[in-house]
Amino acid sequence: MEFLNIFLTPDFYSATFRLATPLMLAALGGVISERSGVLNMALEGQILMGAFFGYLGSYLFQNVWLGVLTAMVGSLFLAALHAFMSIKVKVNQVVSAVGLNTLALGITSTLFRFLFGTDSQMASCPGMANLDIPVLSDLPFVGPVLFSQHPLTYAAVVLLILLNLFLFRTSRGLELRAAGENPQALDVAGVDVIRIRWLAVLTTGLFCGLAGASLTLTGLNTFYDNLSSGRGFIAYAAVVFGKWTPVGAALAAILFGAGDALQLRMQTIFDIPYYFYMMMPYLITFFALVFFMGAAKGPAANSIPFEKDKGRRRSARRSRMGGN
Amino acid sequence: MNKRARAMVNYLISIVIALLLAFAIIGALLLWQGVDPVETFMALFQGAFIGKSNLGASLLLATPLILGGLGIALSFRCGIFNIGGEGQLYLGAFAATWLGVNLVGLPFWLHIPICFLGSMIFGGLWALIPGYLKISKGYNETVTSVLLNYVGVYFVNYALSSFFKEPGALNHQSPKIQTSAMLSKIMSGSELNTSFLMALLIVALFFLIFYKTDVGFKLRAVGQNAEASRTSGIHTRKYLLLAIIVSGALSGLAGSAQVMGYQHLMVQNFSPNTGYDIIAVALMGNLHPIGVLIAGIFLGALRSGASVMQIMMGVPVTILYIIQGVIILSILGFSRANIDFIGLVGGLFRKKESQSMAKEA
């Protein structure tokens, strides 16, 4: 009975949205990149970069908003590398993501040690306070759940709406989706596929920067090694689970956030070892993928690098060889 | 120069460039921090190769990297991206430790193989989950295997804090394994043990099976072109499944080799990030068994050198992750771009020749 009471408290729902924020931001970023045809398993590394550089910026400038900005810059750096590797060099995007994640782990934990020493006990930086929306936050139940969150949670919701409108209501959004489904056709129509993909991957970096900032700058206000601890992969799973739509990915992120909030609350009620709670977010994500998903089909050209002149080059070669 | 040798030389050049790039980045970081990069790298290499005990430590740390790297090389070769090495390694080590502690009174020649077998079964079964989901349902094996990493590691940490905890120990750690399950040392003054010899043997076996037998041929065929091999009558799914199970088993072995070789008990997080390091090893080794052997020894040496470096210079070992990341990315890039370094250099010479010829004329 005590267990069911969890679901009656506004606290639970409020925590759900708080914990879902980084997942949601990263998952939305993932949707953009994947819809444009670039596989993005490097969300993890980008979140980590965002988390560290957000902390660093906020600490150095003593201003949380400049921290958010540096988070986005740090994450953008990794995203640019990702775009370069996947779009320009055309490497295998799964394996390069492993490299990028390792690199992010190296950069963040090395810089952290260099700048803050090995045993600096938590030099804390300015963080963000919850933003109460006037009038609405005074509503019973709904108020604390929806209208008394930190600013990045609102940002996530706004970005969700904007992204949804952009993808499905604008011609630019159509072009982005076409880049992931049928880039050849888009190219014939005279649209620069490469440019769209670059912009998409870089935007993903900005989203992940926000996601990282929402991990470090909203209460934790410090950093430790490998702080993102797999959230990027959970966000990626949210993209898949949400069938590559912004709304789906956001709902999946909220579901995973709820799982996280639930485990934190269950710890106080049930005498189940702590490690199982730690395991739960990953296990829930795993089972969500396995049992409720069915065969997922992503964008058709996802993870396939775009070769602009493929057709033309082939016909040129054929004519050079004397055939037709 | 024939094509194969040329590709080989090109590959080696690309690795050298990747390493130079990695060390240049680290060097710049060190300069910025006011640490002498030359001295730091000297400390790194000294710790890695100079002296019997350092060399022994390098080979010791290389052992799990070689074993796990072979598994990753196999799975990547077959086009199945198993990045769940971390979980497979932990579960394998857990199985071996459990058997090593709880089987009492066995002679060593029976006890040791049983422990190894247990670790291979656990690692292989843990890899079977993403493998099965990939083959039967088409789920992306990278996501599932990564998620299972966390599940596996937390499970093992749980075990070490509860039913498998040494009673009375302050840390969360397992009891010590029986003496009959401990591997014997092969070098005085270092912890180097027979697991290194086993790794060498497995490299040789892997080479023979992969390149000289029917099964190996089919595995390679599936990796080269799954569709073509399916139409030519190869049971593609079976071989994909075999590849991922073997890769999990080898990761498991990488875990048990550490426990049975020198740690002799398991502590929580006993082998952090090894499951991802082996991916760097496999890629650096060009997904070839001999290459994996060399890359494994190299990264093992870096690891052992880095701890000396940390003590001597105060530079954190985490720079290894930067080196690894840069290596993975640049090797991927170079091999994809397929740059013909020999041709490039040759081209420069030819250009000069033609220029000088033009001058003469």
Description of the structure:
The complex is a heterodimer of chains A (324) and B (361). Chain A has one domain (2-119, 135-320): ABC transporter involved in vitamin B12 uptake, BtuC (Orthogonal Bundle), CATH 1.10.3470. Helix content of chain A is 70%, strand content 1%. Chain A has helices at 2-5, 10-35, 43-61, 64-89, 93-116, 142-146, 151-169, 171-181, 183-188, 193-216, 231-241, 246-269, 274-291, 310-320, and strands spanning 131-132, 148-149. Chain A has a two-stranded antiparallel ribbon. Residues 319-324 of chain A have low confidence and may be disordered. Chain B is an all-alpha fold. Chain B has two domains: 1-35 and 316-341; 46-314, ABC transporter involved in vitamin B12 uptake, BtuC. Helix content of chain B is 77%, strand content 0%. Chain B has helices spanning 3-32, 37-49, 52-77, 85-102, 108-137, 141-161, 194-212, 214-224, 226-231, 236-263, 274-284, 289-313, 319-337, 341-360. In chain B, helix 3 crosses helix 11 (274-284), helix 4 (85-102) packs parallel to helix 6 and helix 11 runs parallel beside helix 13 (319-337). The radius of gyration of chain B is 22 Å and the shape is globular. The two termini of chain B are 32 Å apart. The model of chain B has no long low-confidence stretch (mean pLDDT 88).
